[in-house]
Write a structure and sequence with these properties.
It is built from 21 helices and 22 strands. It is an alpha+beta fold. Helix 1 links the parallel strand 1 and strand 2. Strands 1, 2, 6, 7, 8, 9 and 20 form a 7-stranded mixed β-sheet that branches.
Length: about 625
């Protein structure tokens, strides 16, 4: 049945698996995507949304490289919001509310149109490994399918255990069985594993809610989009979300069920996501707060199903129902299904290389929640990177690694393999030391040339990016070169309570003032004429404004990144024996021996390794 040897087998078709399969196939690798249920490709297991703080930057980076997440997010969106618009552009983060069913359908249709990609519905129960090298997978029906590389993207399915109150049962998510066999085989091969937990809130019938008691949360008046592709259009109409609050009464009702909660009675022993806690965890940890926000999110254009964001819980169903009925607008609520928690196996990511290939088994890659991350976007970006590197390995080409100053994806992967994680890892802007360089608006400048070189981003995409870059640079130069007289400048400055000028000055200098915007500058005839003559679009105009206003910060951060990159060039020999460094601390020797960093820069980021330890290492390598 499977006589051929595949270049890449991807196990699991969630966000990580879908991106891994697409990237490997689009790079010319003969690829097989195996999943337990082909009807659930790219299923949104939790909230029906993509993007958000730092996550939106990741989706734009995936798109800039030639991945599919940005395209699908746009085609299935029901609402668009640019978060943090009141802050600087380094913090701006796009987010869409998605139509859950359309999202999965659009993903499947894109994958079905991808050349070199085959599909098979079965559970992978084991791996075929010979001499520490992957050679294929085994299925629950006893089939052996050969492959040169394998990417595991098992999500929450590895020995998944679902908890609702004092009941628990095996499952990868509601209504689907857990995957068994792989964890045990990996442990036998020498891998270290752990358990993590995540949760999801109840889904309710929107017809039973009273939205008049809630606060409407509409999308942006001028919605943007994730994908840089020209034929993908922004939304013309949108659906609103709504916001309401819990209350002391709701908290008291929830506390009544705490002794039956698996989180408090010891049934759940694994670590949950710190930044997306369950409602019972919030009440317990933040006892001083008498209310918490709940966001009521529609699941699509036409369905009445609603997602209660902020009410993730594993409390008994009757407790969930009773407490939710006491929330304003939920007095007559009807449940579609209760919330639940799920425990699953993961493998500490310090066992991986920067390519996401495992150190123990040649040709075996891990991506997504198997690495201890949480979130669709984090998973998708890892899938993309694992798929790319699996394809490159088969083609015997140089590996593809993104640095911390090149992409949030680079920060994510480096954090995972250098520091590891003991709780579900979530990306934040604060994790990126170069976030002024890694903005959502310039992901195409940073990554599309790389995507084109890999064979993922099309020439059309590259040409469009180059055109945008050229127009932006020319517009910046226009402001540098064009002067404005005091009699023209001062009325505009006076209207914004900005200090007036006494002599002609370059427009760049005026525009760089913090309270002067592009709308103010467009009051000058020369600026408006330039925009009209060159048919500049919103992206170019926004890019120009950012480049002018933040030029000092951008230059400073680039300088810092260049300094750090010099340490990236100092390589550490493979299997270096740290025990011979007598003046290095014992902790540093242990950590460095375990992680086996590739460069001095990576070594410096390992927890427990001090600057003094790095100096010892540099002196030794210098000899």
């Amino acid at each position: 049945m499977f006589n051929d040897v595949y270049d890449v087998i991807v196990v699991g078709a969630g966000h990580a698996g879908s991106e891994a399969a697409a990237s490997a196939a689009n790079m010319g690798s003969k690829t097989l995507l195996i999943t337990m249920n082909l009807q659930n490709i790219a299923q949104m297991s939790c909230n029906p949304a993509m993007g958000g703080i730092a996550k939106g930057q990741i989706v734009r980076e995936i798109d800039a490289l030639g991945g599919y997440s940005g395209i699908v997010s746009d085609t299935s969106a029901i609402q668009f919001k640019m978060l943090n618009k009141s802050k600087g552009p380094a913090m701006w983060s796009p987010r869409v509310q998605s139509d859950r069913m359309r999202f999965a359908e659009d993903w499947r249709l894109l994958l079905e149109q991808t050349h070199n990609l085959d599909f098979y519905q079965e559970m992978v129960s084991g791996l075929i490994v010979k001499n520490h090298k992957i050679v294929g997978v085994k299925t629950s029906l006893g089939l052996e399918i050969k492959a040169k590389t394998v990417v595991l993207t098992n999500g929450t399915f590895l020995n998944g255990l679902i908890h609702i109150g004092d009941k628990n049962f095996g499952g990868g998510r509601a209504g689907e069985r857990a995957a068994t066999g792989i964890t045990e085989e990996l442990i036998a091969l020498g891998f270290e594993s752990g358990r993590m937990k995540t949760g999801t809130p109840p889904r309710v019938d929107g017809r039973s809610l009273d939205y008049s008691k809630m606060i409407e949360q509409p999308g942006d008046e001028q919605p943007e989009k994730f994908s840089y592709l020209e034929h993908i259009r922004p939304l013309k109409e949108q659906r609103s979300c709504h916001m309401t609050y819990t209350s002391p009464e709701v908290h008291d009702l929830l506390r009544e069920g705490f002794e039956r909660s698996p989180m408090f009675n010891g049934r759940i022993k694994s670590t949950g996501p710190r930044y997306c806690p369950s409602i019972e965890d919030k009440i317990n940890r933040f006892a001083d707060k008498d209310r918490h926000q709940l966001f009521i999110e529609p699941e699509g254009w036409n369905t009445v199903e609603v997602y209660v964001n902020g009410f993730s819980t594993s409390l008994p169903e009757d407790v969930q129902y009773k407490a939710l009925k006491s929330v304003a607008g939920f007095e007559n609520v009807k449940f579609f299904r209760p919330g639940y928690a799920i425990e699953y196996d993961y493998f500490p990511p310090t066992q991986l290389k920067h390519t996401l290939e495992t150190k123990l088994v040649d040709g075996l890659f891990f991506a997504g929640q198997i690495n201890g991350t949480t979130g669709y976007e984090e998973a998708a970006s890892q899938g993309l990177m694992a798929g790319i590197n699996a394809a490159l390995k088969v083609q015997e080409k140089e590996e593809f690694i993104l640095k911390r100053n090149e992409a949030y994806i680079g920060v994510l992967v480096d954090d995972l393999i250098t520091k590891g994680t003991e709780e579900p890892y979530r990306m934040f802007t604060s994790r990126a030391e170069y976030r002024t360089l890694l903005r959502q608006d310039n992901a195409d400048f940073r990554l599309t040339p790389k995507g084109y070189d890999l064979g993922l981003a099309s020439e059309l995409r590259l040409r469009r990016m180059e055109e945008k870059q050229k127009h932006s640079e020319n517009f910046v130069n226009f402001f540098r070169d064009t002067s404005v007289k005091p009699e023209d400048a001062n009325p505009v400055l006076e209207a914004k309570n900005s200090a007036q000028v006494k002599q002609s000055d370059k427009m760049f200098k005026l525009f760089a003032r913090p309270n002067i915007t592009i709308d103010d500058m467009r009051q000058f005839e020369a600026v408006e004429t330039y925009i009209q003559q060159h048919s500049l679009d919103r992206e170019v105009i926004e890019q120009t404004e950012i480049q002018i206003k933040y030029s000092g910060y951008i230059a400073k951060e680039k300088n810092n990144a260049d300094k750090l990159n010099r340490l990236e060039d100092v390589k550490i020999p493979k299997n270096f024996d740290y025990e011979k460094l007598k003046s290095m601390s014992t902790e540093a020797k242990q950590k460095l021996s375990k992680i086996q960093p590739v460069t001095i820069s990576q070594a410096s980021r390992i927890s427990g390794v001090s600057p003094a330890d790095i100096s010892v290492l540099l002196v030794y390598l210098g000899r």
